[in-house]
Amino acid sequence: MRRVLIPTDFSENANNALEFAVELYKYEECTFYLLNTIYDSDNVLHSSIYEVYKERSLKELNAIVAKMKEKHPETPLYFEKISTVNLLNEEIEAIVKEKHIDIIIMGTKGASGVQEFLFGSYTVSAMKVAECPLLAIPEGFTFKSPKDIVLATDYDVDFENYHMEVLKGIATKHKAKLHALHVKTDAKPMTFAQQQSKKALEQNFEGMQMSFEEVDDASVQKAIFSYHKIHDIGLLVMIKNKHSFWERLFSGSVIDSIGYKITFPFLVLPSKSVIKETA
């Protein structure tokens, strides 16, 4: 059974992420862990106030579960509700380990500053600490089965060390085509190691629809958005690797200079032996 963690603050964005998760995995037996953190350093530390908050939190969680089961009567849905006083990222880390979570799916909040320009600061922070794949659903995105999945890669990774089974599972269930997009930011030819990595990726997805694309662009972000205009990306996938362009995607200078906001789901695949990043 697949285990899916969905943090929620009961907002429209969070509810949208839950709906996306149910639709994405309706062909599989899943347990959805709904997490609501009610941490408030000024109030919740007082036990009497905490009980009031927790009761309200559980009531909201029960209402969401009832609504989802009513909306999807023909889909077997299994939920576990978690209401906690802990900080969000600390709770995510703990639940991923305790419940053996396969994937986190969470909504994003609208941009209101540099730090929240692409995904929202909470989502970016969770991406940095998550030890399992994390799928970010942009604000207002309506679910549609992903038919074109883009894996943006520089091939400077050993794919066997990453959670490729999550990507492969989504592509298989939704009969999607995988586009391996290599953005060349310089004129250097691929190294032997990169060529071997590309070959291993092809072997991993043997028998599935797949294409290998290569574009020249000094900006990975601009290349991705240009590719989206042509192929209508249903899901963007990136490897969380410090030695690739992952870090540059979230660098302040890039966020300041680029005039785009991601409008499609974004899946981040960490290493199976994660080395935590500093915030």
From TrEMBL:
InterPro entries: Rossmann-like_a/b/a_fold, Universal_stress_UspA, UspA. It comes from the Bacteria. Residues 1-138 form the UspA domain. Coiled coil: none annotated. SUPFAM superfamilies: Adenine nucleotide alpha hydrolases-like. Pfam families: Usp. Belongs to the universal stress protein A family. This is Nucleotide-binding universal stress protein, UspA family. It comes from Pustulibacterium marinum. The lineage of its organism: Bacteria, Pseudomonadati, Bacteroidota, Flavobacteriia, Flavobacteriales.
